[in-house]
Design brief:
The structure is a single chain. The protein has 227 residues and is α/β, with parallel strands linked by helices. It has one domain (6-145, 175-226): CNF1/YfiH-like putative cysteine hydrolases, CATH 3.60.140. The protein is 19% helix and 30% strand. It has 6 helices and 15 strands. It has helices spanning 25-29, 35-42, 110-114, 117-127, 175-185, 210-213; strands at 6-8, 18-23, 47-52, 60-61, 66-69, 73-76, 81-87, 91-97, 103-108, 135-139, 149-150, 163-165, 171-173, 193-195, 220-226. A 6-stranded mixed β-sheet has the order 1-2-15-7-3-5. Strands 4-6-9-8-10-14 form a 6-stranded mixed β-sheet. It has a 3-stranded antiparallel β-sheet with strand order 11-13-12, with no helix packed on it. Strand 8 and strand 9 form a beta hairpin.
């Protein structure tokens, strides 16, 4: 069900047991709701795994609920757990196995992207004896090329193929296309990857954006689990 409070990505995954959601701005406007409230609202009954995000490339494959310090995403094959993140411009990237109840979600800002968080996701899946070819991926709403501007001091960190120079000396970077290219190059099947093109910066009625509002800002929640 899609509405003004959240997006459901569940039907976009082949595995009928997988349920994935992304909250919108109006969800938090209800009463300062938590991600636990969000899970209850959409009907996910498992226990939450909550990364304490630091814009890193660190991830966990977890069998236990609760806080995970100093990481930016989790995976699990424990059907009693819900993987979660929070974002406000960064990419929420959902992973789900087509055949097995194995899933995860990662928080990917530009720092995580250039420091190989996607490579680490692939390696974590393989380390736990699952085939990356069996995974479907959704890159959720996030700041798009139209609004993600950087300056000369960090432009060399990005693949030039995904950079457009502005007349004022700044640069626009297409993070989603960069992530898609990296996923494909690492062995994930391109036909199994969906990019949602809604820009969190542009769509102020529906999404929080740190770049737009700085510290006067909320966060969206990403959840993935099984019923």
């Amino acid at each position: 069900m899609n509405n003004t409070k959240w997006i459901s990505f569940s039907s976009k995954f082949s595995n009928p047991n997988i349920y994935a959601y992304f909250s919108k701005k109006h969800f938090l406007k209800l009463k300062n709701n938590s991600r636990n409230d969000f899970a209850n609202l959409v009907g996910l009954k498992g226990k939450l795994i909550i990364p304490k995000q630091i814009h890193s490339n660190k991830l966990f494959f977890s069998q236990f609920e609760g806080d995970k310090n100093n990481c930016d995403g989790t995976f699990t094959d424990n059907k009693n757990l819900i993987c979660s993140i929070q974002v406000a411009d960064c990419m929420p990237i959902y992973f789900a196995n087509k055949f097995l109840n194995v899933y995860g979600i990662i928080h990917v800002g530009w720092r995580g992207l250039v420091n190989n968080i996607i490579l680490n996701s692939r390696d974590l899946i393989i380390k736990n004896n699952y085939s990356i070819e069996d995974f479907e991926i959704i890159i959720g709403p996030s700041i798009q090329r139209c609004c993600f501007e950087v300056q000369l001091d960090i432009i060399d960190k990005f693949n030039k193929k995904f950079v457009v120079k502005k007349s004022n000396g700044g640069f626009f970077v297409d993070l989603q296309s960069n992530a898609l290219s990296e996923l494909h190059n690492l062995g994930f099947k391109k036909q199994n990857i969906i990019i949602e093109n809604e820009c969190t910066f542009c769509n102020s009625d529906y999404y929080f954006s740190f770049r737009r509002n700085k510290n006067h800002n909320g966060r969206m929640y990403g959840l993935i689990g099984v019923f």
